[in-house]
């Protein structure tokens, strides 16, 4: 009996050890807070609390996962009554500025540690970023909606809270290169947090 | 089941779309433009009609236009004259003796917006999307006041438009002279080049 218990403990320990030594595939859902930078930050200076993203990662090595990201952030600001001049023309009124950012990326994350519950990582995403910028003034609307080529460096960590679930916190920078009607690149920093379900 | 819960959370987050204008005044606009080759500073006199034209389609031969009712017309005219005076202009009764003439006119325009419930009978898929902005009204009527400054004389053989001031807003259903006079003030305030020596 003692021999059986010893073997059982060994097997269980080994299986947990294996779980910690290889980062498992996971699906993640996260809430995101975003801040515009550059031209987007000039257009909307307020942070966005309307955002979320979905991620799927598959392990290709012990500490390297690849997958896809899809997200949606809505940045919005009501500007005070102001005057806007271009050449000899001046227009005054309240502007309602909205910018939707929808990144669709393939991504790879490298985990610096996989044998502990706390698993920091760095990652890079590449793909496209759809920007939809609307400026409402009076009953008029200006709309610009280009698709950008995009890059997304990211750092963060997973913290295992159970065998199948981890807490995730990440800081990402999305950079959409200049495209379409918007004359400047569009970028924003996103702080996201959520859970990862290990598959 | 977990996935369904997560998607519910995501839908909740994404349902928080930004709000828009709350009051009629939030949609008021003032637009101005001018001829940058015209020298306003060496002028000084202007004339202005004692009534404001209400534009309601084309006029037939010999037909008089509609005019804005009193006392609203006088209130608006006094506001324009007050602003012109503050910029150094002197009003003259006879347009022949004036450097410029200021012509005020108003009109309204109604736009109709149709949205999902017009097509629910056809296929439920087309319901509930709110296709057009603003999505919660079936029509919107905007009122516009335009002030056109016209110059003639030595510099222009024919009457020439040298300044335009335009106020536009959603009509609230009752004459609101406060919004209109505010628009008049703003049009002159954002046109400092009208100042005469």
What oligomeric state do the depicted chains represent? Answer: heterodimer
Mean pLDDT of chain B: 80
Reading off the top of the CATH hierarchy, the class of chain B is best stated as Alpha Beta
What is the structural class of chain B? alpha/beta
Number of helices of chain B: 3
Which class do the helix and strand fractions of chain A yield? mainly beta
Task: Count the DSSP helices of chain A.
Answer: 2
Rounded radius of gyration of chain A (Å):
22 Å
Query: What would you call the shape of chain A?
Result: elongated
Beta-strand percentage of chain A? over 45%
Q: Strand sequence of the main sheet of chain A, in spatial order?
A: 1-2-3-6-7-9-10-11
CATH architecture group name of chain B: 2-Layer Sandwich
Task: Provide the fold topology.
The complex is a heterodimer of chains A (199) and B (197).
Chain A: H1 2-21, E1 26-37, H2 38-43, E2 50-61, E3 64-78, E4 82-86, E5 89-93, E6 95-111, E7 118-137, E8 140-144, E9 147-160, E10 165-176, E11 186-198
Antiparallel strand pairs in A: 1-2, 1-11, 2-3, 3-6, 4-5, 6-7, 7-8, 7-9, 9-10, 10-11
Chain B: H1 2-14, E1 29-34, E2 45-47, E3 53-54, E4 66-67, H2 72-86, E5 90-91, E6 100-112, E7 139-151, E8 160-170, H3 177-189
Parallel strand pairs in B: 2-5, 2-6, 3-6
Antiparallel strand pairs in B: 1-8, 3-4, 6-7, 7-8
Helix pairs in contact in B: 2-3
């Amino acid at each position: 009996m003692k021999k059986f218990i010893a073997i059982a403990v060994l097997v269980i320990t080994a299986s947990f050890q294996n779980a910690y030594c290889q980062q498992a595939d996971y699906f993640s859902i996260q809430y995101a807070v975003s801040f515009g930078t550059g031209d987007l930050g000039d257009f909307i200076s307020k942070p966005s609390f309307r955002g979320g993203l979905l991620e799927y990662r598959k392990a290709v090595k012990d500490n390297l996962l690849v997958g896809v990201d899809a997200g949606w952030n809505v940045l919005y600001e009501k500007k005070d009554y102001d005057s806007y001049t271009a050449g000899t023309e001046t227009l005054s009124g309240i502007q309602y500025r909205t910018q939707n950012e929808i990144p669709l990326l393939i991504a790879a994350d490298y985990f610096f540690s996989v044998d502990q519950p706390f698993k920091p990582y760095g990652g890079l995403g590449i793909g496209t970023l759809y920007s939809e910028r609307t400026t409402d003034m009076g009953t008029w609307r200006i709309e610009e909606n280009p698709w950008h080529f995009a890059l997304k460096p990211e750092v963060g960590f997973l913290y295992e809270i159970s065998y199948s679930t981890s807490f995730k916190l990440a800081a990402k920078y999305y950079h959409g290169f200049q495209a379409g009607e918007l004359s400047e690149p569009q970028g924003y920093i996103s702080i996201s947090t959520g859970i990862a379900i290990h598959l | 089941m977990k996935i369904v819960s997560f998607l519910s959370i995501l839908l909740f987050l994404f349902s928080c779309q930004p709000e828009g204008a709350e009051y009629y005044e939030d949609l008021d606009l003032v637009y101005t433009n001018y001829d940058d080759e015209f020298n306003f500073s060496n002028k000084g006199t202007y004339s202005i009609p004692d009534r404001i034209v209400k534009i309601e389609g084309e006029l037939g031969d010999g037909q008089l236009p509609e005019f804005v009712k009193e006392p609203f017309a006088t209130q608006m005219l006094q506001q324009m004259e007050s602003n012109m005076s503050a910029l150094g202009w002197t009003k003259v009764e006879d347009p022949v003796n004036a450097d410029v003439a200021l012509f005020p006119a108003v009109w309204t325009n109604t736009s109709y917006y149709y949205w999902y419930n017009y097509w629910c009978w056809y296929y439920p898929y087309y319901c509930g999307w709110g296709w057009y902005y603003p999505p919660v009204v079936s029509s919107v009527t905007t009122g516009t006041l335009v002030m056109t400054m016209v110059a003639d004389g030595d510099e222009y053989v024919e009457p020439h438009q040298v300044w335009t001031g335009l106020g536009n807003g959603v009509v609230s259903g009752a004459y609101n002279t406060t919004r209109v006079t505010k628009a008049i003030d703003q049009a002159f305030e954002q046109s400092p080049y009208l100042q005469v020596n």
